[in-house]
Amino acid sequence: MTNDEPSVPLDARLDLVPAKPGVYLMKDAAGRIIYVGKANSLRHRLANYFGGETPRGGVKVEAMVSHVRDFDFVVCASEFEALLLECNLIKRHQPRYNILLKDDREYPYIRVTMNETYPRVLKAFHIGPDRAEGARYYGPYLGGQLFEALEALRAIFPMKTCQRVFPRDIGKERPCLNYYIGRCIAPCLGTVSAEDYRAVIDDICRFLEGRYDGILQGLQEAMARAAEEERFESAAVYRDRIAALSRILAKQKAVSGRETDKDALGLARNGTECCVRRLEVRAGRIVGQGTFFLPDDGSPDEEILAAFLAQYYPEAPAVPPEILVPFLPAGADDVQALLAQFRGTRVGLRVPQRGDDRGLQTMAAENATAALHRRAVLQGHGEEAVKAALDDLAGLLSLESAPYRVEAFDISNTGADDRAASMVVFIDGKPDRQSYRLFRIGTVGRDDRAAIQEAVSRRLGRRGDTEFGAPPDLLLMDGGIGQVQAAQAAMAERGWHVPVAGMVKDDRHRTRGLVLPDGRTVELALRLLDARGEGPDDSEERERRMRLLRLLTAVQDEAHRFAQKYNRKLLSKRTKRFTLEGIDGVGPTRRRALLSAFGTLKAISEADLAAIVAVEGMTAKSAAAVHAHFHPEREEAR
């Protein structure tokens, strides 16, 4: 049984709610926040939900209100301040009934660490906190676009691609091959100042922002100087860089005679999902694009567009001065003010009526329609297939409704000492990685059932901890009836009941079926042909099994991946311990003292002799042994 219960009257006491701007938070029976909204008058807005009449807003609002058991609110100084708070709360809680931009973590970014003395160009799967310190992020990139972008950077700019850290590693080793073929200016030599290397990175940033003209002119001037000075090898290197940049310019479409910066958005929907396509125009050329998906819950187009603008641009690498839209979003003035706050200057939302801008926005709309169609074909109609799979799962387990929050457990070990349990969370059929948890298992031996019982018991012991996560609607175990019974035993100890099932694999380690609490196994992996060479006649049944199998495979694979990740971490710690204790004069006590003082093995390896000697319990002889272990050759004074 899930946490959703039949609707009961809610004593809203609207007389205690102020008629002021603010944000309201709707909660279900388990205390989960299922909707966040803003209002110019909290009392009037909540009266729309609890005023005794059928709430206005259609089927979605009626469904949400039927699950509300409590609400909270925060009074704000203005409706704009409420919009800011609403955006932050939606991002934090991911409420079930809000329009949510899909997690784009599978789409990588290019990260340029401009916050470092010698910036690096790296791949990143999400925008990190170092952005506030000056790091820059470009993307997200779809498919092979990231690889193509990095290849273009390496062909045009003499950027470092090695793992050396500067200025720490300057002068320690000879430069690599890239230096000798003109692909790196080799800051490792110590002959290149931080300012000169940063100038190369500044050009890379301009390239990623689509500002090519200054770069091309600089390369042409450098080639001319090299030729004039008869440095013909250098001139040839510049010639090749110019050719690589020219090929990129030839592929790009100029959409404006003016060197303007703007984004163009197109929206398409198919009744299950909405797609927003963003075309990025810099200096009058299309230099990038992004594709984003939101659930099609029946909300008006204007609300969907407003949700996208409010959720995407706060985390975007850059906010342009103008955004072309197919129509103005709901609350357009407040949305523009929100975007202006993130940019630092005014941002205009404009519906183009004619000319180049109209053609650009139409192109974005056509691309959105094509992307949505492709996604539906390749992913089994997107959200519709996932929701159907959850309904099928509810039917097999006799649940009253589809499970919203599913938690899955898996055990990983490399012996009796390093054992780990993973708990992965799927919300509405999609992984919620922020809610994942890991447990180090203390149970003696390699009994997976006992390990499952320990992990589930510890999770249930945190059921009142809101930071740990809302109560699950379903538990899935990696394994058969033994693991299911172990989870049931943990629930019996804790006095809590949640539906539970097992996920079993075939002899090739592929998910094959679902184990029910009564011991029966529902086989989902179908054979394409039977013994007579005939296939199944019931195509509807085949599709039902396959969509449920795809969902369970995703859950089981994610649980296994996450458990293995933690297990590798434990193994790394054990290896670190043995590394230190293999040094003469270092035993368990001094190992703990060193790790307590420096935190990591890397920090110990970088410490000077005086710092190691200063650690409590270290002698001059043992400190010298540690220092010599990590520095077999004496460093030259810099």
Descriptive overview:
- The chain has helices spanning 42-50, 59-66, 79-93, 145-156, 177-180, 194-208, 213-228, 232-251, 301-312, 332-343, 355-378, 383-396, 448-460, 481-494, 539-581, 588-598, 601-606, 609-613, 620-630; strands spanning 22-27, 33-39, 70-75, 109-112, 121-124, 136-138, 262-269, 273-282, 285-295, 322-324, 348-350, 405-413, 419-427, 430-431, 437-440, 474-478, 500-505, 511-515, 521-523.
- Residues 1-9, 527-537 and 634-638 have low confidence and may be disordered.
- Strands 12, 13, 14, 15, 16, 17, 18 and 19 form an eight-stranded mixed sheet that branches. A five-stranded mixed sheet has the order 9-8-7-10-11.
- The relative contact order is 0.07.
- The protein is built from 19 helices and 19 strands.
- A hairpin with a 5-residue loop joins strand 1 and strand 2 (33-39).
- It is an alpha+beta fold.
- The protein folds into five domains: 14-93, GIY-YIG endonuclease (3-Layer(aba) Sandwich); 112-251, no CATH class; 262-372, 2-Layer Sandwich (Nucleotidyltransferase, domain 5), CATH 3.30.420; 385-527 and 539-571, UvrC, RNAse H endonuclease domain (Nucleotidyltransferase, domain 5); 582-630, 5' to 3' exonuclease, C-terminal subdomain (DNA polymerase, domain 1).
Task: Tell me the layout of helices and strands.
Blueprint: E1 22-27, E2 33-39, H1 42-50, H2 59-66, E3 70-75, H3 79-93, E4 109-112, E5 121-124, E6 136-138, H4 145-156, H5 177-180, H6 194-208, H7 213-228, H8 232-251, E7 262-269, E8 273-282, E9 285-295, H9 301-312, E10 322-324, H10 332-343, E11 348-350, H11 355-378, H12 383-396, E12 405-413, E13 419-427, E14 430-431, E15 437-440, H13 448-460, E16 474-478, H14 481-494, E17 500-505, E18 511-515, E19 521-523, H15 539-581, H16 588-598, H17 601-606, H18 609-613, H19 620-630
Parallel strand pairs: 7-10, 10-11, 12-16, 16-17
Antiparallel strand pairs: 1-2, 1-3, 4-5, 4-6, 7-8, 8-9, 12-13, 13-14, 13-15, 17-18, 18-19
Helix pairs in contact: 3-10, 7-8, 12-15, 13-14
